[in-house]
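task queued by scheduler; priority normal; single chain, no ligands, no partner chains; default sampling; output format set to structure tokens
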Amino acid sequence: MLDVVRRLANAGVNSIGDWLWQKQLRFYLVKDQVVMRMCDTEFKYTYEYQGTAPKLVHTPLTDKCYLTLTQGMHLGMGGNPYGPAGTGKTESVKALGNMFGRQVLVFNCDEGIDVKSMGRIFVGLVKCGAWGCFDEFNRLEEAVLSAVSTQIQVIQAGIMRNTPTLQLMDKQVKLDPNTGIFVTMNPAGKGYGGRQKLPDNLKQLFRPVAMTKPDNELIAEVIMCSVGFKTSEELSGKLVAVFSLSKQLLSPQQH
């Protein structure tokens, strides 16, 4: 928060139409209803109690992810953060859902999940207005991915047209417009076995966002500042350097 205020002050922002202000996720009270705004998008807060879970540290990477996901939802699409393991893809989706007051359900995908299992999950999400985050989505078999794309198209079309019900699994299902579908993926190829490339018709349903290397120094600085370190800015760089050297020089075996 302090970093955002500092950036706004340094840029001399004095208008609510300024891009640096518009790209922040902002909360407003409109006629006794809390709404979130980011750029030209607006969403209703849904008051799902999430408990007091630890918060995700905001970095420029998470801001970029939030901006892409909210723009995707505004266009009736899902979100697709992709990149190597440990870059915060799933955690970013969960943190954004938490701020929206949505229930976020994470499903780990593998080769054992079939079309009917995915269909039952979609029916549950649509009925209760939750967000579904399908982790490692490209581990599903190619035939399942193709069939799933049809079900996702039906859901997204229903949300865009604001229809009260839709046809899923051969039955009429009541649609909650707050439903969201997100997928995360590791790259298909060397080092990540069993991953498929998404079919083109499925790629078009999700707004992709590349999650690259996280800013470890900034994350360490914020965590240290939150627990009371006064010189967190200086210490964070040294701490990250120690762990980076340890990773390079020491064996991964537990001692």
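post-processing summary
- The chain has a mean pLDDT of 87.
- Residues 136 and 185 are 5 Å apart (CA to CA).
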